[in-house]
Amino acid sequence: MRYFKLTGLILSLVLSFSLKSEIKIDGLLDEAEWQKAQVIDKLYEVYPYSLREVNEYKTQILIIESENGLYFGFKNYQTNETMRINSHLRDQERSLSDKNGIVIDFDGDGIEGYNFFISSSGSVGDATVTDEKERNWDWDADWQSAASVKDGVWYSETFIPWSIASMKTQTGEKRKVKMAFYRMLMGVGRGFSTIKGSVYENVYLSVFDEYQFNNYSVAKLDFFPYTTLTEDIANSDQISKAGAEIFWKINTSKQLNLTLNPDFGQVESDEVVVNFSAFETFYSDKRPFFAENNSMFDVSDRMHRIINTRRIGGRPDYDCDVQGDLEDYCEETQAETSEIDFALKYTQKGEVDFGFMSASERDEKFSQGRDFYALRLNTKVNDFKYGYLGTYVDKPVLGTNAQVNSVDFTYLPSEVHRMNGNLMHSNVNNQDGFGLTLGYSFNPDQDLSSGIGINFYDDQLDLNDMGYLILNDRLMFNGRTQFKKTRFSEGSILRSRLFEIGYGSKFNADTVRESSNFALKVEANFIDLSEVKTEVFYRSTGRNTRITRGSPLAPYIHMPKGIGGYIEFTGPRKPKYIYSLRFERGKGSEHSPGISWKNSSRAFIKFMPRDNLSFNMSYNHSDEKNWLNWLDDNLLATYERKQRTSVFELEWFKNNKHELRIKAQLVAFTGRNPTPYIGDQKGKLNPINLSISPITISELAFQVRYRYEIMPLSYLYLVYSKGGRVSLNDEEDDLSNLYRRPWNDPSDENFTMKLRYRF
User: Fold this and answer.
1) Contact 521, 535 (CB under 8 A)
2) pLDDT for the residue 20
3) Among residues 12, 79, 280, 339, which is most buried (max CB within 10 A)?
4) d(CA 289, CA 315)
C-alpha cells in the first residue's frame, strides 16, 4: 500500500511539473495548472472614470509563476453582440478591438513600468511607462500571447519572461512586484482596472497593487543579424547591407546592447509634415536598438528632450568652404543621413540606476562622423526621485563639441500632490546656456484636477546636437483646471462630461511679454459612444519674436489679438465603421499667432468590412486669406494659403504572422497672390514694391509593406516606397494635378527586402 501511495505521489509531482513546464500559449486556458492559479476578479470602472466596482461584466484574471516567467490568463464574459474582434497593427491601443492589459513594475518603486496588451483578435502591443503615466510605444519585446473566442466569453493567455526587462536586485527569497490589470470593452466604450487609477489621470504607477513571487535570477543572450537589399529605382542603384545587434542580459539587473554596422533604414514611414515655422518637427525613433531600455534615458517635457536619438545617424556636418575647387561638388552631393559604425548601451539597476550610451558615425564624403555619448544616474528615496543625465557630442568637421548637463526630480508625497522639475545647462561653442522647468499638479478627487507649470530657457540654451528643444529665449507660465463628471443617473444620456480652463503667459528670457492666452474646453461623451468636443480661445496682442529668425532689422513682429475655436463630433461607434467631423475657425491659435482668419475642416472614417481588414480615410482642408510667411532677414510676405491633405490606409491580416499595409499620404500646399512687406524695429509690417513668387508644394508618401513574423522579434519585410516633394513657383490650384506631381516625378522610389533574425 505504501508503495502505491509513494508511486502516486511521485507521479502526481512529475505530472504537476510537466504541466507547469508545458503550458501552451494558445488562448484556451485548458491546462490543469490554471485550476491552481491565483485569481483576481475585483475590478473598477476607469473609463469613464467613475471608480465604481464592476458587477455586470465578469472578469477573471489568473496568475501563475515559474522560474522562466509569469503566465497570465483572462476570462472575459460579455454578450456576442458587444464583442469587437478587429485585427490591428502592433501597438494600436486605440483600435476598436476588445483588449486585456497587463502593466508590471518589476522593481515595485513606481519609477518604470511595462505595458502589455492583447486584443480579442490576437493582436498585441507593448510599451514602457515612465513619469507615472507617459507611455512609449516604440519599444517591442519578446513575449507570447494568444486569444480565443467562445459564446459569451473570450480568453487571453500571456507569457512574460523574467528576462524581458532589467530589474533591481532584491534580497531575500521573494521579489516584490507591483502590477495593474485592465480590460477594454470597445463595443460599449468602457474600461475596467484592478486599481483605482488610470493612465489618463494624475497618478498611475504609484497606486499599483503589490504581489510577491520567488526571486529568480536570469541571464540571456540574443543575437540579431540582419541583411537588407534595396533596389533604388529613382537613382537606378542597388544597395545591400549586413550587420548585427547583440542584446546581452548579463543578470537580472545588468544589460549590455551592442550594434555593428546597423541598418537604421525606416520600414515605418514618417508622417508628411509641411512646416514653414521656425520650430522643428519632432519625430519619434522606432529603431530597435535605441528603443531598447531607452526609458532610462528619457528626460523630457512637451517643450524639450535631453536625448533625441533621431539625431544619431542624422544629416552629416559639412564645411564645403574648405574644399577649394570641389566646393560646388560638395554642396551638390550632401547626404541626408549618416551611416553608423557602432552603437553601445549599458544599463544597470540598483540603489542607483546607471546607464551609458555611445555611438560613432562613419566618415562620409566631405564629412567626418560625429561621436555621441550619454550618461544617466537615477535613484529614489521614499517619495523623492531624482537623477542626472549628461550628453556629449564631438563634431570634428566644425571643430567643436556640445555638452549638456541635466538634473531632474519628481516628488510624489501622496496621490493628491505631485511635483516635478528639470534643471539644464548646455555648453556649445563655449557658450553657456541654462534652462529650468517646474510643474505642480493637484488632484483632490476623481472629479477635479489642476496643474501649473513654469518653463524657462535662456537665449543660449542649446540641446539640439543630441536632444530636442522647440525654442530658447522663452519664459512661460501655464496652468489648467479640469472638472470631470463620470457618475450620472441611470436614465441619463451622458457617460462623461468635462470642463477645462487653460491659461498661460509667454515672455522672452528678459521678461518682455509676448502674449497671454485663455481657453475653455467642453467635452461630452454619450451612452451611444458618440462624442462632442468644443473649445474657444483668446490670445492677446503681443510680439512674435520667432518668425524673423532673430533678424536685428526686425527683432519681432507685432501680432493682433487672436480668437477662435473648434467643434468636433465623433459618431456612434458601430461594429463596421466609425467616423468623425471637425470644423475650426480662428485668427491664429491658442499657442500660435496669426494676422488673419483661418478656416479648416476634417473628415475621417474607419471602415471594417471584415475582422482582419480595415480602411482608414481622411481629408483635411484649410485656407487663410493673409498667411504671413518669413522669406529672408526682415523680408516677409502674405499669401492666400490653402492646404489639402488626403490619407488612405489599408490594413490586412491573415493572422498575427502575416500583415499587409498600404498607406498613401498626399499634401497639396499653395500660397497665391503674395504681397511683400519689410519688418522694422517697432514690429510693424511695411508694404514694399517687390516681385514675390507664389508657392506650390506637392508632397507624397506612399508605402506598401508586407511583414512576416518568423518568431517574436524576427521579421521578414518586403517594402515598396515612393514619394517626395515637388516645389514650384506657379499658380497651380487643381488638386488632382498637385497630387499627381510627386507621383509622376518622385525623388524617392525603392523596393527593400529586410530580414532580421534572432538567435
Assistant:
1) yes
2) 41
3) 339
4) 19
